[in-house]
Specification:
Blueprint (H helix, E strand, L loop, with lengths): L1 H29 L8 E5 L14 E5 L9 E8 L2 E13 L2 E5 L11 E2 L3 E8 L1
Antiparallel strand pairs: 1-2, 2-7, 3-4, 3-7, 4-5, 5-6
Length: 126
Amino acid sequence: MKQFKKINREKVFFVLIIFISIIIISFKFFIKDIQPFGLTILQVSSNSMIPTFRKGDFIIIKKQTEYAVGDIITYEITEENKKYYVTHRIIEKNENEYITKGDANNREDGKTVKNEEIKGKVLFFK
């Protein structure tokens, strides 16, 4: 009888993990602008942040009220009517603007980042 209860609990736990995974994937692919619990999951698309993380790694970001030098942030850029995200480290702060740089890059990014362009700070990566 005890073994039956243990197997049942394991099955319930497994089903819950699958269910939660499906919900998270649904948020990611079908409801892109919603951030469950204020978190956003993104996949890295370049190697500009080596050795911190690499192309293909996943990051979790969350909007913050303040950002500091050393924080890794994701911000939005619009070029030629296309929006995309950049994830780089803050190397300098000037009031509500930030200068960023990829860890693997030789120089800072070409434009300053305004507070309203920041989508969030990287909390986790793998």
